[in-house]
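Students often ask why we bother encoding 3D structure as a string. The short answer is that it lets us treat folding as translation between two languages. Here is a chain of 736 residues written in the first language.
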Amino acid sequence: MRKLKSLVCGSKFGQFYIDAISKMKECVEFIGIFSNGSERSRLCAEKYNVNLYTSIDKIPEDIDIVFIAVRTGVMGGDGSELALKFLSKGIHVFIEQPIHIDEMKKCVKCSIEKGVFFHVANFYKYMDTVHKYIECSKGLLRKNEILSIECACANQVIYSLLDNILRIFREKARFSIENFWIQNQDFFIASGSINDIPLSIKVYNSVNTVDSDSYCYYLQQINIYTSEGMLFMVDVNGPIIWKPQFRAAHDLFIKKGDELDQKIFDSKMYWYESESELSYKDIFCKKWIDAIKKEIKEFIDNIYFEKMTEYRRKIQSEIVIPSIWGLITQKIGYPRLYQNANHAVDLNNYVLDFFEEKNTFLNDSLEIKKTANNIDFYLEPDITYGYVEEAKHIMNIACLESISYKLYEATGEKENISITEIVSCLKVADSNMHILQRWLNALSENGYIECNAGKIKWKKKNTSICEKDNWKIVSDKWVGKLSGEHVINYYLKHIEKMEALLSGEMNAALLLFPEGTIELANCFYRENLMEKYLAYCIEKILSFAIEHTKKDKIRILELGAGTGATTDRILKVLENSTKKIAYIYSDITKYFLNFAAQKYQGKEELEYKVINIDSNLSDQGIAEESVDIVIAAGMMNNAVNTDYSMRQIICSLVHGGIALIAEPVGENYELMLSQSFMMSRPTDAREVCNETFLKMEEWKEVFWGCGISERELVVVPSDTSPLAPLNQKLFIIRKE
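And here it is in the second language, the structure alphabet:
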């Protein structure tokens, strides 16, 4: 068989035909392109080494086929006019849809008179997904199982959608479109029936003025409902989904296997996809070209084998398509024009990254648990559970007896006194009443006083000598082992200034930052064994997380960074990482930020930010799901409402993100002496129980209230750790 000489009109969509024809050398001789002489058509002619014709009179007379990819008359182009000219010369014509019914009738009439073929293209039906869907749907139709059909398409492809539906019903389709309504400014719905089966078509009727062939949500969707499920074609590129009807298994747990309706258990969703994860480049360059080649091959076979009788029969049934297309497009009117070519947010990559878990910081909490439970923090051999428990007990006694003596002495050593008199004698400020009450509760619970009807009776009397002896024992037990001398002296300073602190005459911050210096505050981290342990754990968990995440860019937020004691350790971890790190160093005051900016000068990854954890983080520039790691070491106890602040932290985390929260758990009397005077009065469980720090169960309630499951929570040190009696924990939380 000789090769058929072919010409392509148009080079915009025509370039797909040009590429397809150039790959069909066994049956087609591609001789040239006819166009208005655009730069695109010139480049196409050069690439495929064919002639470029800009005048119809210059086109050779011996052309066999013309492929017209130019808008037809109804779309404002001269495609239909060109088709008639070529048909009248006895040339076969293959034209892109859509075409008006009057134009089609003229072309069909002319083709029959000249004994040539005329074909309105719809390569979609030759795509693997669409072909499979049509064939499966035919089977459903043969079984009389199609109950209704729902379709959706872009306005540019209504014509080919109607053609695809027609293929399901072969050549016996009776279309009827009766109802039309606007869903919103972009979507229009037409409904009716095909062969008495309910049919609805939802049309996306908006066009981007920058590129009228792009920016549609889908090309074609078809959803066929049957008595047992639905067959859904998501788009022409796939996939196809078979979804059985939901069937409730009422007797699942009370009947034996052979007594159950197996149809319920055997039914399952099926997903067909010819090739997964294809990019649009793959679809355009391979899928579309392959489909166009199949359609052209079928057209050429008609010519080779002179299937004129079959052609006449088929073309008459296809007349219904432009008729229904014209009715729908007339009713929906002109598309809404808009301009939105550039998108500020790359949602495509966001969604792909989400399902590929590239947005997920860490995919599993099991490895975090293993890492946390195997942290190799070195302790001196004599730092045993028993040693630490005794040291903590001695500290508690020293604190309780010192407060007991201070209150007894300040109230004139009265053995029986009312709470009102204590408040009056000490001139307790209203803002500190809750602190006084906490100490009275602690003294009562430990047998130092007896409270009855607002009256207090001293049960244990202490002297200044006892007080000094107690703190000498504390010093002997703690200094060089669990803490440093500066820290112990800091606690003693609070006992000395207790009356001034309770009355509000002294600002507790001046005791921690004497003369505005931070040396004493730094001593807490350098000398305090528990603080060193918690910082070491944070360092290890952070190191593991950064090493094991798939993300290349990591965003860390440190809340209440203060003097940077925790930050120092973290920055050492970051120095060894190849990941791109953005680190937000935050505190509630600029004082610490100014200090940190000098301390970390040259650390470009650091951003300094004033953040109040009692306020909405989004309003302070920390958007939801924008942070991979949140670190809050010893600052959550200063939140007014722990539940609210914790929800803010969890909201800020990406999926798989982690929060590292280091906090005292339960009452720590040495911290009640000191830190409580710098803490906000709470409105959470601490207010109800009048306690300084949340207990373990209360912390868990906070986490559960944020949607954190028990499997996503790790707590160190364990209850059997030598450091457990010190009542401080690191909560490692992963957001699912």
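Translate back mentally: Residues 385-410 form the longest helix (26 residues). Keep this in mind for the problem set.
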